[in-house]
Request: fold
Amino acid sequence: MSQEFTPKKIREPIDCYEESTWLANGTPVFEDSRYAIWEDRFPVTPGHLLFIPKRNDISHIRLAYGEAYSYGEKKIESGEWAGFNIGQNCGLAAGQTILWPHIHVIPRHNDDNKDKGGIRRAVPDGDNKQYY
Reply:
C-alpha cells in the first residue's frame, strides 16, 4: 500500500480492509490477497493473533476462520500450546471495537489462569454459576 493512511477510530464504521486500524500498527505477521494475520495490539496472552479477512463477505470470513483454527491446531500438535480460544466479537453490544471482521486466536496453557470459565464467562452477570 503506497498511499498515505489515516486509520479509522475505534467504534467508527469501516468500509474496507484498507481503512482498518491494524494498518497503522506496523507489519502483519502474514498477508496475502485474501486475509492477513496481525499481532493483537492488546494481547490477552503472548501470541494472541488476529486473522483478518480482506473482504467483508462470508467466503473471506470463513477462510480466515479456517486458517485461524488450523494455526491453533498446529500449535497444539507441536506442543507449543495446550489449547486455544478462537472467536469473534460481532457488533458493539458484543464488545467489538474495530468494526471490521476479525478472528481472535488466543493461546492457552495449562497454568495460564486458574479460572477456566471459557465462553460462558463472556457475560459476567450471566447464568453460568451452575457450570463452575
Summary: The longest helix spans residues 58-77. Strands lie at 30-31, 35-39, 49-53, 83-87, 103-108.
